[in-house]
From TrEMBL, chain A:
Domain FixC-like C-terminal, chain residue ranges per copy: 369-435
A GO molecular function held by the record: FAD binding
Function: Could be required for the formation of a functional nitrogenase Fe protein. Probably accepts electrons from FixA/FixB and reduces a quinone.
PANTHER family found in the cross-reference section: ELECTRON TRANSFER FLAVOPROTEIN-QUINONE OXIDOREDUCTASE YDIS-RELATED (PTHR43624)
Organism of derivation: Mesorhizobium huakuii
Pfam families registered for this protein in UniProt: ETF-QO_FixC_C, FAD_oxidored
Keyword terms, alphabetized: FAD, Flavoprotein, Oxidoreductase, Plasmid
The protein, known as: Protein FixC
Keyword match Flavoprotein: yes
CC cofactor: FAD
Protein family per UniProt: Belongs to the ETF-QO/FixC family.
Automatic annotation (TrEMBL), chain B:
Protein name: Ferredoxin-like protein
Family the UniProt entry places it in: To ferredoxins from P.putida and C.tartarivorum, ferredoxin I from A.vinelandii, ferredoxin II from D.desulfuricans.
Example of a GO MF term: iron ion binding
InterPro entries on file: 4Fe4S_Fe-S-bd, 4Fe4S_Fe_S_CS, ETF-QO/FixX_C, Fd_FixX
Keyword terms: Electron transport, Iron, Iron-sulfur, Metal-binding, Nitrogen fixation, Plasmid, Transport
Domain 4Fe-4S ferredoxin-type: 58-88
Keyword Transcription regulation: no
Protein species of origin: Mesorhizobium huakuii
Domain of life of the native organism: Bacteria
PANTHER family: FERREDOXIN-LIKE, FERREDOXIN-LIKE PROTEIN YDIT
Keyword Transport: yes
Function: Could be a 3Fe-4S cluster-containing protein.
């Protein structure tokens, strides 16, 4: 099919793959990018919030033509039980800045734009091509790939594995282990279309302003999970995700959870009358620092979700993907400029650079959170949300009960359900994992 | 047409999606078995596209046409050999319009 040898082959046209291909092609490398979807983005699913700073480091003037939906001026975090939500809202006019910090995006559209930039930078992008196998030489160095297209292998000095959370190539080649059920979440999402002005009225935003709601509580039915609602220009991305291990243990159906979330009295009015145009499912890496695999070897590097680079605590995924793709590309460009071979030893620079970036520093900070949340999900996602709702309602109902008695009843409710020791121990463990 | 947001069946949800099915070449197969493991049985509930169903002999069968390629079943059942998982051929399978 393709006879020439490339400087680099990038497998996948998601955030990390596009970032890597763009940086390498911009620096004059001969890059081939392979994508199994009909078009870039057709296999990709994200919430989706895009962080401007990480994209600016790759394409500084992206705001000129990237398909952006709304820039975020308000974030709500809701703790929910069956009939209520207790929320923290942060809204600031400071977010109405010349160069906003966070945007909602629609990935299929965004990825097409990003891929166009990659092609303009000089890379060859080949869609509808599934990479089936890595090709290695006698010394076990990765030297290319085989695809499901006719013809022989395609060769390159280095292969960038940007194959996503469920990447088959790296796991089958033994470069990394398959994610464990407790280190990935399954999320389902729907796209709800509503007229622009309806969205603006319901969320109190105007123009390009947007709002995010993220929700925890009984919506995940004692599993470790999160619900979300993101406003786009004329649609709402709405979804819910829980750990795969929890789904397997409870046998809850994700679509049942999603429908219950949509029917929650706090959510239902926000999407009333909407037209659903897509239903998507995707895995999200949740293992954090402890789940990061070997990141490089002879003739290969792994980036993005395939490398489990996702900050589940702050729901930051695509920015870690973009950044790891950029850093891997910069490392490869550096090795190439020195005319050095793409060996394990020379590619170590990728890990060093990534370790010094916010990507690994942030993941290291929360290294104990996944285990804590996983082993404690029924308390964090059901018991406490119910207690918080009870406390708030007790405080707000005015019924002639003296306030001191209301306070005592609230304290008693917490102690009855979790015990003094349980409360202190949960607080200490949470504080330690957060530190 | 506006579809009520409540009580959608999975089939109706999947109907919104765009697929290019590769006839006769399902990308996921269930290995023949006498009785399914707990994980394989769980897929009949937790597969988001409801691809897995129990037949009347209590065995798990798959119809992969509505698959969204999330990989949940692979995580749970590939390592013990109960299912065989591959990506569809290039261009085939689910094609997200929004993602």
């Amino acid at each position: 099919m393709i006879e020439e040898k490339f400087d680099a082959i990038v497998v996948g046209a998601g955030m990390s793959g596009n970032a890597a291909a763009y940086i390498m092609a911009s620096n004059g490398l001969n890059v081939l990018q392979l994508e199994r979807g009909e078009y870039p983005g057709s296999k990709n699913v994200q919430g989706a919030i895009m962080y401007a700073n990480m994209l600016e480091k790759i394409i500084p003037d992206f705001r000129d033509d990237a398909p952006l939906e709304r820039h975020l001026v308000e974030q709500r975090l809701w703790v929910m039980d069956e009939t209520s939500h207790t929320g923290i809202h942060y809204r600031s006019d400071d977010f109405n800045e010349v160069k906003p910090n966070r945007y909602t995006i629609i990935r299929a559209q965004f990825d097409k734009w990003f891929s166009r930039k990659v092609r303009e930078a000089g890379a060859t992008v080949l869609c509808e091509t599934t990479v089936t196998e890595l090709v290695r030489d006698a010394q076990d160095k990765v030297v290319g790939v085989r695809t499901d297209r006719a013809g022989g292998p395609i060769f390159a000095d280095v292969v960038v594995l940007a194959e996503g959370v469920s990447g088959l190539l790296g796991t089958r080649a033994g470069l990394r282990k398959m994610p464990k059920p407790e280190t990935v979440a399954l999320a389902v999402k729907e796209m709800h279309f509503l007229p622009e002005e309806v969205i603006e009225q319901r969320f109190g935003v105007k123009g390009d302003e947007g709002c995010v709601i993220e929700a925890v509580g009984t919506i995940s039915r004692s599993m470790a999970g999160l619900g979300f609602l993101y406003t786009n220009k004329e649609s709402i991305s709405l979804g819910i995700g829980c750990l795969v291990s929890d789904f397997a243990a409870t046998m809850e159906s994700p679509y049942v959870l999603l429908d219950a979330f949509k029917n929650h009295p706090s959510i239902r009015p926000l999407i009333a009358g909407s037209e659903v145009k897509e239903y998507a499912a995707h895995l999200i890496p949740e293992g954090g620092h402890k789940a990061i695999p070997q990141l490089f070897g002879d003739g290969w590097v792994v980036v993005g979700d395939a490398a489990q680079l996702n900050n589940a605590i702050h729901r930051e995924g695509s920015n870690l993907a973009m950044t790891s793709g950029r850093i891997a590309a910069e490392a490869i460009v550096g090795v190439k400029r020195r005319n050095n071979p793409m060996t394990r030893r020379n590619l170590t620079i990728y890990k060093t650079m990534l370790d010094n970036s916010f990507v690994v520093k942030d993941l290291r900070k929360y290294k104990d959170m996944p285990a804590l949340i996983h082993t404690n999900s029924s308390n964090f996602f059901t018991t406490y949300p119910r207690l918080i709702s009870l406390a708030a309602q007790n405080l707000m109902r005015v019924d002639g009960t003296p306030k001191i008695e209301k306070e005592k009843a609230t304290t008693r409710a917490f102690i009855n359900v979790r015990s003094r020791w349980g409360l202190v121990s949960d607080a200490v463990r949470l504080a330690l994992a957060w530190r | 047409m506006t579809i009520a947001v409540t009580n959608l069946r999975v089939e109706d949800k999947l109907y919104q999606n765009r697929y290019l099915v590769d006839p006769g070449r399902p990308h996921i197969k269930v290995r023949p078995h006498e009785s399914p493991s707990a994980n394989l049985r769980a897929l009949t509930h937790i597969c988001p596209a409801k691809c897995y169903e129990l037949n009347d002999k209590g065995q798990v069968e798959i119809t992969a046409d509505g698959c969204m390629e999330c990989g949940t079943c692979r995580i749970l059942c590939e390592s013990n050999g109960e299912i065989e998982w591959n990506y569809p051929r290039g261009g085939f399978g689910v094609l997200f319009k929004f993602g």
